[in-house]
């Protein structure tokens, strides 16, 4: 009898493992050309391997909300076991998220939320807190109130709008003034982002700071370095406070082209997305909001992050 029971338990375990191995979860970034999301992909793939499930990483080739919606629609049609999406336009995804939930497909958001949708959880940064941190780091480097410009990705991105709100709260609360034409929107295009920083400086040569809420320009290293060199030929007093801590950005700081980085943890978002989707698929509960931390990097601790 004991042998039979052990055999039955073993068989059930094998069935459970086989079922898990058949599960396919989709991770949808805002744009496949954004290196930031490569880390979310890597975290997703690594955690999926540990869990014995499959992570399918697919999004628009570049930032395009309508294409993102279509890709999610395709995953719903295919009947994947769960979807995690970084939302480019919160309003545009509401309908397709409801379709997925009506089809009993678990849906969570990561990195960028759609809080008024039927999504079951959000995993990512406290974006308003990140905006505040960017502002506080700028004031630490430049205590006297001055003029500033900022830059965002897409105007409909919930996460970026929250960052802008946090940044404005700190800077405008401290007496800083935003210049005309700010914020600029680069649609997650690195080359355009670097050009917009240069344009802000050209139009406002006495500006106190240019502080984006995303690190897009740093993914066009040569163009970004040209911008910094142009500024520093005439100005030594403009602090360069930039978002995110990907390897290329860390090296940029180490090379002297940034003073402070305020970084997110996209790899951890990818890991936690797989954990949450598997739990939801099994009928288990997950926290409705999971906040991953921020990292503040300067020349004093950059080597630690580059290891």
UniProtKB/TrEMBL annotation:
<keyword id="KW-0732">Signal</keyword>
<dbReference type="GO" id="GO:0030288">
    <property type="term" value="C:outer membrane-bounded periplasmic space"/>
</dbReference>
<feature type="signal peptide">
    <location>
        <begin position="1"/>
        <end position="20"/>
    </location>
</feature>
<comment type="similarity">
    <text>Belongs to the bacterial solute-binding protein 2 family.</text>
</comment>
<protein>
    <submittedName>
        <fullName>Monosaccharide ABC transporter substrate-binding protein (CUT2 family)</fullName>
    </submittedName>
</protein>
<dbReference type="InterPro" id="IPR050555">
    <property type="entry name" value="Bact_Solute-Bind_Prot2"/>
</dbReference>
<dbReference type="GO" id="GO:0030246">
    <property type="term" value="F:carbohydrate binding"/>
</dbReference>
<dbReference type="InterPro" id="IPR028082">
    <property type="entry name" value="Peripla_BP_I"/>
</dbReference>
<feature type="domain" description="Periplasmic binding protein">
    <location>
        <begin position="25"/>
        <end position="285"/>
    </location>
</feature>
<dbReference type="InterPro" id="IPR025997">
    <property type="entry name" value="SBP_2_dom"/>
</dbReference>
<dbReference type="Pfam" id="PF13407">
    <property type="entry name" value="Peripla_BP_4"/>
</dbReference>
